[in-house]
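Entry: EscU/YscU/HrcU family type III secretion system export apparatus switch protein
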Amino acid sequence: MAEEGSASDDKSQAPTGKRLQKAREEGNVAHSRETQMFLILSAFLAVFTMTTAVSGSTFLRHMRGLMEHFDTVSPDGGALYLALQQSIREGILLAAPLALVCAVVVVVSGLLQTGLLFRPQALIPDIGRLSPLSGIKRVFSMNNVIEMLKSLTKFVVFGAVLYGVAKGTLRVAPEAERWTLHHLTSELISWFVYATMIILMIQAAIAVLDEVWTRYHRLQKLRMSHQDIKEEIRQEDGDPKVKAKQKQIRMRRARQMMIRAVKKATVIVTNPTHYAVALSYDNGTDAAPKIVAKGADEVAARIREAAEDSKVPIVSNPPVARALYALPVDSEIPPEYFQPVAAIIAYVMKLKTPGSRAPRQ
């Protein structure tokens, strides 16, 4: 029993397409936060670089205006409030393009990784998530531990980069007092772009590793056992017992239809034991005899029994029986068989006199 249990828990098989689709519908998709962060940083740096000239000049013009009129500001606070309000407005206008682009990148990167996925059931509150025990388990889960270690590593690496840039910046700090405001702003922007580019390259490497790990980890969690695959096949194809029952019903209905067709047949042509073909022909309406039922071995025996019960003539003609058996049911016989079949039907018609019996072989 223990061996059977361990075998059933052995998730050694790759997930099937149905398993992956079901996981996606449940919200289990490969989503790398590091890839999203890389795209956001890339967009931020691109927009910042393209808008630096305009935003920098606007900022400098605003600051120069404040400095020039600072000594004329009324001490009552009203002018200070207006100046502060204008500064906030200018800051919002400068930051709006960056914020808008970053918001768009967040949405687009999510769609690129997961596609358009809407889960109404996610809006339903889950009472189980309010359990303190469940919360503790989530906090100390392996995924959260990995995320924490990853965040600490990024903090150390990015901190080292910023420290290196700041250290280089401090070397020229004594000269900064002789710089103009425009030159100082340009230097600060250059240092900021340089540090951001280094962080972006590091983030790119982290994003590649995280993307590979995220997809691998998701596939590992979705792996299936042999029993899981068998159960999925059973659900797709149906329960074998139910399928067998349905097959029995179909066969029973087919036999009933065959018996009804045999009862209305004009003649049964046999092999005499291996094949039996029931022909129907109405001289007034049919252009040619039609095959209404056929069978081999056991089915042929049932056709003969039904014919005997219904007093339908049975004629033994092995060559004709074998030839007609190859034709589909409900089809008219082809012209090459008209002559032998016509002879059989003519023979049967002669036998249909009061008191006559169908010939038996």
